[in-house]
Each structure stands twice: as C-alpha cells, then as structure tokens.
Amino acid sequence: MVFPPAGTGTIGGVGKDRFVEHGKDRDLQRTYRGRAQRDEHDDPPLRQGPERAVLIQSVPRADEDSADSLSEMAELLRTAGALVQHRVVQQRPTPDQRSYLGRGKLEEVIELVKEERPDVVAVDGELSPRQQRTLEDRLGVRVVDRTAVILDIFALHATTAEGKLQVELAQLEYSYSRQEGLWQHLERLGGGVGTRGPGETQLESDRRLLRNRMGVLRRRLRDLDTSRTVMRDRRLASGIPRVALAGYTNAGKSSLMNALSGAGVDVNDALFETLDPTTRTIAHGEYTILLSDTVGFIRSLPHQLVEAFQSTLDEVREADLVLCVADASQPEHRRDAQAIAVDEVLDEIGAGSIPRIQVMNKVDLLTESEIAALRGRAASAMLTSSITGQGLEELRDRLADLARARHTPIDVVIPWAAGDLVSEIYRDGREVHEESTDVGLRMTAYLPVPAARRLETALSTRLGLRTDGSAA
Ligand SMILES: Nc1nc2c(ncn2[C@@H]2O[C@H](COP(=O)(O)OP(=O)(O)OP(=O)(O)O)[C@@H](O)[C@H]2O)c(=O)[nH]1
Ligand SMILES: [Mg+2]
User: Does residue 230 sit within a domain?
Assistant: First the structure.
C-alpha cells in the first residue's frame, strides 16, 4: 500500500481507482491508512513500526469527558496503526471555521510538526473539508478526523463480503458529503477566475462516479438482505426468543457470547473487533434462546456507518430483549458517558423501546468494595465476568425466564382414548409431568401459547371433552 504525501490524496482517501471493480471480495481501501496490520497477507508497510501521530482537540471546556474522548481517540488511532506522541488541546467556544484551531494554537502545532515530523495529525472531532485542507496546507502533513479513523478501523476489520460492502458504502457516503462541502465552497467563490474549467468538471464527474458506485453497493446489500430476511423469518416462526448483545465497543460482548454459547467469535483488546453478526442457540435447562453478537457502539458513531450497517443492526432492532453490556472496570463518569452514547445509538436505530437487561461485565477487575458500590448504584444490573464465569449462571436463568414467558402453564387430564395428545405435549412442552388418574393421564407442562391453544381446541371439539376429562 502506498501512502500518498499530504494534500495529494483525494478527499477521504477515496481515489478514483476505487471505482475499478476488482471482483466482489476485493480489499477495502482505508480512509486513514495507518499501519495496522491485520495479517501477513496485508501489503507490507513502507517503514517498520506504527505511524507517529499528533492528536489535536478543540473543546469549549477541558474536563473529564473531553479528556476521555481524547484518550479514546488515541485508542482508535492505536487500533488503526498509529501511536500518539503529542496531544494538543485548545479551549475555545467553537473550533475555528477555517482552520479548526485558533491562530496561536495553529502556530504552536506548526512548530511541533516541524520538530517532531509526525506521519499524521489527527483531530478528535469532525473536520469540514475546508478545515482539513487548511490544516494540511499549513502543517504540510496528512490530517484525519475521528470519522475517518473509525471508518478506517471498520475497513481494516471487515472480513465478510457483506461487511466489506457496508464499509465501502459508508466510506463513499463520507466522501460524497465532503465533496458536497467542497462544491458549495467553490460555488461561494462565485465561479470567477480560477474556479472554472477542468477542476470543476473533475469534481462533477467524481460525484457522478460516487453516486453510481453507491447505487451499486445499495443494490447488492439489498440482495444480501433478502436472503437474510428469509433466515430471520424462519427464526421468528420458530417462536424462540431473540436476544441481542449491544453496548460500547470493547465492553466484552463477544467474550460473553463465547462464554454463554461456546461460539468462537474473535475477541481482542481493540475497538470494533466485531463487525459481522453471529447468532447462536443457547440452551438452558429445557429452554432455548437465540443470542446475537454484533458491532459495538462509540460516542459520535459516524452516521454513515449506522446507515450502511442497517441490516447488521437489524439483529438488535428486531430482538425481543437487548443485553446492554457495559465495562464495569471503567470509572463511573466514563461508564455514564458510554451508557449515554449507547442509548443514543439504540434510539437512532429504532431499538430504544426494546426491553433491556443491563449487564456490568469485567467485574473480576473490581475489588469487593467496588462491587458493593456498583450493586448500590445499579441495583437491577447483572454483574458478570466472562473470564471467571461470575454471574453467568444467573444471566442464563434470566434468559431462560424469557423463553419460559413464551410458554403458558397447562394442567389437563388427557382421556386414555387420546394418547396422541400426550405425545404432542411431550413434543412441544417443557417441564412435563404426568400422573395417572381414573379417567386419564393428568399432565402439567409449559406449552408454547399456540400449542396450548391447539390442545384446548382438540380436547373440547375433536373429542367432545373438557380439559378436566368430563364429557362436554
Ligand atoms: N478482565 C476481563 N476482561 C474481559 C472480560 N470480558 C472481556 N474482556 C476483555 O475485553 C476485551 C474486549 O473483549 P471483546 O469481547 O472483544 O469486546 P467486544 O464488546 O466484543 O468488543 P468489540 O467487538 O470491539 O465491540 C478483550 O481483551 C477481552 O479479553 C471480563 O469479564 N473480564
Ligand atoms: Mg466483539
């Protein structure tokens, strides 16, 4: 992979060669192009080791939350393949419209870049195309924003054909919106000398190419979604309750999935390790549920990703219950901020009103007194550790309760003449008990509601009998 010098890469790292079809499962281009290596098949980096980054942030007030956001951005960069060497924070009511940083701070960063020669300057926030260009011009180094880095990690972690299509669509939407910004900017210049001609035409044709490609991707994703819908409908018809793991990235959703179901989902101390959904059946006692693990959330999750990942996020949107997983080892203020971000995304995808169970994971990292404090603050939350197994049995019980709630208790006497109904109860029922009486077999069980209705009809109409065994 060739790293373009600053300023020469096309906007958002999406060059024209993107539109050349290299076959369905081609590698994604990355929006940021850090040196994170997924495996040995990746292109060799030009230079050994991660890239070096200067991280900048402009906030109205530097507080715990803004510091957390900055650390998280450093973590995002680490996942994408860059190590942060310097952090520069500017306090001002809003970022400068033209250059993101104010004049003084910009001069400071120009000096820093001259001395330290980083590979990239990363901004913990969103840059307008104009801010990005100004910064790249003034700093003479590649500049990326939070969205570009998150998209980049998604590109790095996408493995399935669907995941790759979703990420590419999100990348193109990002580029498209940025070109729009640039276009308006040129229009504002009034189309005078220097703004007409080939430059403008190029932009127009770039935008047409982007639109065409986005159309192709949307169609392909719709086709894939159709076959997925068939599977989803089948699951729905089975009546088995569907539970989705959701929560902040790196909270331990996949680890819980593995611990509960034995699924071999990849687990890693990296942000957005999981992109593609996995669903497994979990049996507990006599009840089963379907558990799905999927992509994690983050504060300011780029809306392009939420849009492109619609069908993946259906696993959450269509669940009967959401297990909201949080990392209990985080300080309270960070956990709260993360919970707010998770709520926002759940609302955005239309899953805000699905019943939830709050799961506080990684409690093995807490002391006894911290656990007691946590119980005090989040009384209804379940405390779990996917490493020690703590709390997992209770969680399984809660999931089994959900499945049991889909069943209705029956207590019937089946006449000796209706032996076929006995086998039906054994086939459909859970926790079945029988006891012989003079008139027939008394049976207690939990039956799925439709099966219970069928039984009642069979007993009252087909046999002309009431459920207590007497003649109708
Ligand atoms: N100590 C401890 N570490 C855990 C626990 N559960 C998960 N981890 C670690 O936390 C990190 C993230 O775990 P994952 O299961 O990949 O988290 P995730 O929520 O699926 O993350 P994404 O897929 O990236 O959103 C890994 O390094 C896990 O080993 C736990 O109960 N205790
Ligand atoms: Mg995961």
Answer: no
Cα 272 to ligand 2 centre (Å): 7
In a domain, 472, yes or no: no
Q: How many domains does the chain have?
A: 3
SS3 content of the chain, % helix, strand, coil (to 5): 45, 20, 35
245 and 286 within one domain: yes
CA atoms of 337 and 126, how far apart (whole Å): 19
Token code pair at residue 232: 């989803």
Q: How many A from CA of 42 to the centre of ligand 2?
A: 22
Mutate to test the pocket of ligand 1, among 153, 260, 267, 276 (most ligand atoms within 8 A of CB): 267
pTM, to two decimals: 0.81
Q: State which ligand 1 atom lies nearest to the alpha carbon of 274.
A: 23
Bridge partners (DSSP) listed for residue 143: 121
pLDDT digits (tens, 9 = 90+) for 301-317: 888 888 888 878 988 99
Q: What is the pLDDT of residues 124-175, one digit of tens each?
A: 999 999 999 999 999 999 999 999 999 999 999 888 888 899 999 999 999 8
